[in-house]
Description:
The protein contains 10 helices and 10 strands. It is an alpha/beta fold. The strands form 2 sheets. The chain has a 5-stranded parallel beta sheet with strand order 1-5-4-2-3, sandwiched between helices. A 5-stranded parallel beta sheet has the order 6-10-9-7-8.
Amino acid sequence: MGSYAHPEMVVTTDWLADHLEDPSIRIIEVSSLGELTYPDGHIPGAVHWPWRESLWDQKMREFVLPSDFAQSLSRSGVSPETTIIFYSDRCQFGTYALWTCLLRGHTHVKVLDGSRTRWVQDGLPMTTEVPRITPGNYPIRAPNETWRISRDGVLAGLGNPDRVILDGRTPEEYKGLRVKPEPGFDHGAERKGHIPGAKHLFYDELVNEDETWRPVEELRKAYEARGATPDKDIVTYCRLSHRATFLWFTAYFLLGYPRVRSYDGSWTEWGSMVGMPIENPSLS
């Protein structure tokens, strides 16, 4: 069995259980449901980051500004030397936080393989105690846009044989039957469908039932089946880019693909922009 290209980017539940008292790390739970999971139980020592409030700017559709992110890291007791271990109640929110962290210049980051799901399944300790954190003084860092692509960049590359666009949403979203995953009110964009030429790779195909990543051979096979090979320029997207970052992380860090970027505007932007081309198989 092969190994991941960058296994150091992922930690196991056993490793984290042995490092709960390690002062060089900071564990951060990125909640997809706001306040609904963290108070009921979290990994001991974990700081709580509700995803939208922590990772987005509060006034405009943009990621948290470098100055605000530095303040957030400071409040969380993170220094430039601290290694952050991200996890969530849904695995894609951990990679989303990691991607945002790299965007804002903090590179000492890892994700917990299996996230909260595997931790609970393994019967490892949970607590309702909120840790007391000594605030730091994290410096503002220059953004790093290496792994980000805008709508204009995606649009300009349509039809380019060197590029493969991967859509990480559910089959229903990709086929143009829904804008968001079931259940609930269907909302998030003005139009249904997918970006022209995009190949469907539902992020759920990359994980086991406990949300740990599948073996590297299975991951590689899934990407290659969509024409996404190491020589291609890979763009990932979904609805809000959480699942997109999961595809990005898998391709870049686990498979070692050199050219992978996430389109963070994703379908909520593309499907609502005037004049953007769309493919909708449900209308054929």
